[in-house]
Write a structure and sequence with these properties.
11% strand, alpha/beta, single chain, UROD/MetE-like_sf, Cobalamin-independent methionine synthase MetE C-terminal/archaeal domain-containing protein, six-stranded parallel β-sheet, 8 helices
Amino acid sequence: MDADIANLRAASAAAATELFMSAASPGVIGMFMPNRYYRSTEDYITALADAMKPEYDTIYQAGLLLQLDCPDLACEWARGERRTIGEFREVVAQRLAVLDYATRDIPSEAMRLHLCWGNYVGPHHTDIPLADIIELVLQARPMGLSLEGANPRHEHEWQLFEDVKLPDGKILIPGVVDSTTNYIEHPELVAQRICRYAGVVGRDNVIASTDCGFGTFASQVIVEPEIAWAKLATMAEGAQLASSRLWGHPR
């Protein structure tokens, strides 16, 4: 962990004022490493939380933002046995309660939660809608909520925030470039996506991001590295356009 933190600091631009480091949530670990010992799923997830707490605390104590990667909150809906939405919401609530337990010693403003539907190339037509879980996720302790906002299955869900109020002190971090395609988005499209979210939750409550990481699977390269860098560049250019429209000048 110390080596990872040192590498991140060494790789960051001199002008960077804030850095975040990702860490797997107890729930996503449990999703890929099934329980074979504990009496219940709740006992297992709680044990994972206890095991992960030192890593979470170390990231925070190093002065970095902690990003909790929680694809299990959405993508596990399509895995394994079928559940009702009510039953799955109980699973999500349990995972979030354990996450809050694991991060109890870290201030909300020092954390962001990443929610996604697996970041895999596929039809995604069985994804659970964001509307079915959003109010649960917004109750979690992390201040920032990172979510997919650029892929064709979920881009429309920005409209949800016309009816769902973003709690005071929360920040949305929507994806404005897709991290599973080699298309390079136009800066104008990026600006449009940012402005849509800003229009419903407020311009001070939006941070542009990618849908997910570009290196989700260690064994596969889905987006070529030079294209990933180009996507980040177009995201920055689009953010400048959005800032000029929202504030009247670049930020």
